[in-house]
Amino acid sequence: MKPRVMSLVIFTCVVGLLIAPNKVNFLDAIFSILAVALGSGAAGALNMWYEADLDSLMSRTCLRPIPTGKITKKQALLFGIITSIISIYFLYLFSNLTATLILATTILFYVFVYTIWLKRKTSQNIVIGGAAGALPPVIGWAIATGEISIQSIILFLIIFMWTPSHFWALSLYKTQDYKKAKIPMLPVTSGIKTTKLNIFIYSVLLFPIILAPYFLNYFGLIYLAFSGTLGIYYIFICYQLFEAKKSNLEKKIAKKIFGFSILYLFVIFTSVLVDSII
After folding, report:
1. What is the rounded distance in angstroms from the CA atom of residue 165 to the CA atom of residue 209?
2. pLDDT for res 277
3. SS3 helix, strand, coil % of the chain, rounded to 5?
4. Is this model's pTM higher than 0.90 or not?
5. Burial 127-163 (b: 16+ CB within 10 A, else e)
6. Cα-based angle 153, 213, 211 (whole degrees, multiple of 5)
7. Hey, which of 2, 57, 132, 215 would disulfide with 44, CB 3.0 to 4.6 Å?
8. What is the pLDDT of residue 207?
């Protein structure tokens, strides 16, 4: 169920829920978040069901349950379908139709659009497919309000614009894995230099979106201080990668970007939460 990925999904969903103007009953909130977590895990399971052949070829994924024989593809498929249905049903039971429809759309988009359609066909797979991973704060907001707002859309855009540089950094130091599995990630199809340029461009494009909530008066100085500082540093290390000439240095900086990008997103959403409370 990809618990490490799920943890970030849950956190951004919780932030969306907590900063919304409406208050939600504690038990309804808890069960709604658990339903979103279950839906995220279900999508992850279905992803691993479909990509079991690729997972077995890649060092990063070869120890997952299906390649190691701990479960069969059929078991993974049934588990993914059943948990998807349960998650959607329980979210409807404890929240509202809007949040439920967004969760269902997220699962379907991740499985059918990203996993089955895009991932093996285009180097832009992670750009378009990133929409699924960017929806949890919108779901959280919808759980509380029953609607989608400009504020929740901005949170969506932050994750959506963050995703390409995050995953392309990973693909830079795992290029051989993707070549072996014949997945058309950007370094495989367009080369290292183009990938580095795209990582830098997306880090720059992300910056004004990160700052937008402050200038739109959604969040205050606490948010601006953290988002501005981290955003500038993120652009700096992405530029370092772009300027790097040696392959071992490129891989070192790419790993640094990948690790820092997770901290970056976590701190941004933490500052959203802290700023909203204070």
Report:
1. 15
2. 84
3. 80, 0, 20
4. yes
5. bbbbbbbbbbbbbbbbbbbeebbebbebbbebbbbbb
6. 115
7. 2
8. 98
